[in-house]
Amino acid sequence: MTDFEFAWSALGGDPALLRRVTATVREGALVGRLPVRESARICVGVCALAAAELAARREGLARVPGVRVDDGAVATAFTSERHLRVAGREPVSFAPLSRFWRTADGWLRTHANYPHHRRRLLAALDLPDDPARVAAALGERSAPDAEEAVYAAGGLAVALRTPAQWAAHEQGAAVTRRPLVEHERLDSAPARALAPAPGNLASPAAGLRVLDLTRVVAGPVATRTLALLGADVLRVDPPGLPELPDQHADTGFGKRSAALDLTSGRAEFEELLARADVVVTGYRPGALDRFGLSPRALAGRRPGLVVAELSAWGPDGPWAGRRGFDSLVQAATGIAVVEGSAERPGALPAQALDHGTGHLLAAAVLRSLTDRAREGGGRLVRLSLARTAAWLMDEVRPDRAGPARREPAQAYPGPEPWLAERDSRLGRLRYALPPVSYAGGPADWARPPGPWGADAAAWR
User: Are 232 and 254 a contacting pair, CB within 8 Å?
Assistant: First the structure.
């Protein structure tokens, strides 16, 4: 079995459809010690195949459209935040306190891009906002000690671990016990027929409403992909926690954005839920339960709902309730050691855990919609960055990555062929085009991103 076949099987897909996929291999794209190019190709390829499958069903086609996955498009999309320009301005990437720090016994990776995370990191260390002071203080502490202290203060820090150390860690063991993609039937609601969409292969998700309760990168990449395919995606955030502007611009294509307090605005939220087809969440496992937003509670109020859950560390184990980001998962799982040198830790050539997991999550939603139309029943699908990391490190191999049909390898010419420009309410944008591609499929998003929280919390 190729790794492509494994991923499609993990999504519950029909293996006969794999012959519809062709890959354009680009040497020099997403170069790393780990098989990042191959895993990225798989994640996007299975997402495109799931989209083509749903499109064929809604069109009433006997044959699923052919899928083409191009390493150049994938590499450009997986580094989309680097190519974004807003009115000619380059995006702000990592904040000064988001980096690796030398400790007395190794290295610590912190994440402080969000103001509230920066405040908590500094509070844990009892220091002012001064990188030199932070470096001096951490240089005298052990990495595990600093990790626990920052976490206890609500901040984000992870001690660098080798792959062997992560495998021996209780959270590492909990992650590898889980499948790459988890599926669960939530109810036995009748099959919800998808209205035929003749002549509209490009929008297999047209007419579907997606309630987007995600933040940062991976979850928004998933919902951005669903928006590409025609879904009405409404992202809802707490009013007091705005998304980082450039991050929102990069992942906001095709969507609308509303700010809504889940306590004072509960009636509005319930109106949204009553008409939603899909709810995607990207908070820590259990974090939304107090609002009555566990998967079963949601399905109880909206039978037949597809719920997609994304987390950093997975749903169980001692770190299940911890916040996490791509860079922190790379540090904890040993990726940063593998991609680094004897002098310092390294990183993947892209935020591949975020983008890869985001495309797998979108694929899982699309496959759930297809299965629900056939068999009925609400669905829960669940993925985590840490499980995608384990798959990348331990299971993907370049010599068996797939798909079976490939064109002769070509050189990666750089990102330019897969960049576009358009006007928006944010200013003139340069951005990466979507990598999801199939015959008759969409070439770009129907709308550019708008300002964060500027839309009404209501369906169109």
Answer: no
